[in-house]
Write a structure and sequence with these properties.
ten-stranded mixed β-sheet, about 30% helix, Alkaline Phosphatase, subunit A, about 450 residues, alpha/beta
Length: about 450
């Protein structure tokens, strides 16, 4: 049997406990796909964030092999040279590159790390990393005017999604998703394709903006809020939109629905650099700032600094090593001892109530096959990702209920979802133990294309 066209619907941050458990019976499209397909939780990358997760899933390589560990990465071992991981950072072929190289047409829209728009054997609309719609964001270039002529200004992302104006945020998230699916249906109708992939960032944005209203266990839960049903209603909207997309392709295509990671309540923030300073690892020149200040705006006494950190969904700790950093303070022979000391202290750190926080610390060499680029020396999941890493200094406390980049209700969870629906080829069953490395081999298998022999992941169809 020749391979059928493959449609991949990517829903960033779509969360397994909501799709597979809490709301499964009230989402008819998802329920039909689950009942008739192979489905299960998908173990994401370390770290489980949009960049690097989508590119890792689509290349069959882990973040260390790809050489980026988040949206912004150290470009070298200097202290201040950072680089955004856009499309130019992805040097491994993604699934659609392999499909196109086989002479088969593709459609790609919204997949993270596709700006600047790379050439494909078909059509591509770039992602939320695109600076603005004034930038070139399509391939071929003329596709931009077609999209804007039919759908108005293309919504690349929900800007300023960390805001207190929740009514406007909710309106903008829903409008972005509705437009994204309208564009997807148009492309499917008007372009030839054997492989089509669309990613919507809406689920991620709504989780960060509205989780506390939905979850009574959230420390900031507001009973009776008018936004109590915002996430649930949005999942219903997604269910309808996915259903309309499936109606567009009929029974002639294999369908995959997937997410790159999940979400969970954010219990608080841990001020990583504040902690490093108090523990004697980080030294500043001048007085402590009177208000929360990003570390890069402060003058650091590098000759007396052992380690510093970066905030975000997870913590990154960098050691100041002699012969590696310009003003290294740690002799190379002390590197492992200092790193082990830091890891032990972080894992033993209590929460604000004195109980164990449950922090997990990873060494890059333990989780990545290679370590390209400039990896962190330690990767930190505060409270196993229930707590966000806050990079600012000057909070006056290590524990904070707030995120230093704006209001945020959720942090990422380590598992996304994966559903493959093709009654002609894939028997219904629950998938167990699937990881991000298995995604690319599975997609190629569905298209009857070979996977590289050195990939560590395996097709779940085997």
């Amino acid at each position: 049997m020749s391979a059928r066209p493959l449609l991949v619907i990517g829903l960033d941050c779509l969360t397994p406990q909501l799709v597979f458990e809490a709301w499964r019976d009230e989402l008819p499209t998802f329920r039909r796909l689950i009942k008739g397909g192979a489905w299960g939780r998908l173990r994401s990358t370390v770290p489980p964030i949009t960049v690097p997760a989508w590119s890792a899933m689509l290349t069959g390589r882990d973040p260390g092999e790809l050489g980026f560990y988040g949206f912004r990465n150290r470009a070298d071992y200097s202290y201040d040279h950072m680089r955004t991981a856009d499309a130019t950072a992805v040097r491994e072929p993604r699934v659609w590159d392999r499909v196109g190289a086989a002479g088969r047409p593709v459609i790609v829209a919204g997949v993270p790390q596709t700006y600047p728009p790379p050439p494909v054997n078909g059509a591509l609309i770039s992602c939320f990393l695109t600076p603005s719609t004034q930038s070139p964001y399509t391939y071929p270039a003329e596709l931009k005017s077609e999209i804007e002529g039919l759908f108005g200004e293309y919504v690349l992302d929900v800007e300023d999604f960390r805001t207190e104006d929740k009514a406007d945020l909710l309106r903008r998230i829903r409008a972005m998703s509705e437009q994204r699916f309208r564009v997807a249906r148009h492309l499917l109708r008007t372009r030839p394709w054997d492989f089509a992939m669309f990613v919507d960032m809406g689920p991620d944005r709504i989780h960060h903006g509205f989780w506390k209203y939905m979850d009574p266990r959230h420390p900031k839960h507001e009973p009776g809020s008018p936004f109590a049903g915002a996430i649930r209603d949005y999942y219903h909207l997604l269910d309808e939109q996915v259903g309309a997309l499936l109606a567009e392709v009929g029974r002639g295509a294999t369908v995959v629905v997937m997410s790159d990671h999940g979400a969970q309540a954010m219990e608080g923030g841990l001020a990583l650099n504040e902690w490093l300073q108090r523990e004697g690892y980080l030294s500043l020149k001048g007085p402590e700032p009177a208000e929360p200040t990003p570390l890069h705006r402060l003058e650091i006494d590098w000759e007396r600094t052992v380690a510093w950190g970066a905030g975000g969904y997870y913590g990154r700790i960098f050691l100041n090593v002699q012969g590696r950093e310009p003003q290294g303070a740690i002799p190379t022979e002390r590197y492992e001892a200092v790193r082990a000391e830091l890891a032990a202290k972080l894992e033993a750190m209590p929460g604000p109530d004195g109980a164990p926080l449950g922090t997990r610390v990873f060494r890059p060499e333990d989780v990545y096959a290679e370590r390209r680029g400039v990896p962190p020396d330690l990767i930190v999941y505060f409270g196993d990702l229930r707590w966000r890493s806050v990079g600012s200094v000057g909070l006056g406390t290590i524990y904070t209920p707030e995120n230093d980049t704006g209001p945020d209700d959720a942090n990422h969870g380590p598992e996304g979802i994966f559903i493959v629906y093709d009654p002609q080829r894939v028997p219904p069953r629950k998938l167990e133990g699937m990881t991000f490395l298995d995604v690319a081999p599975t997609l190629l298998d569905l298209l009857d294309l070979p996977a590289p022999a050195d990939w560590r992941g395996r097709s779940v169809l085997a």
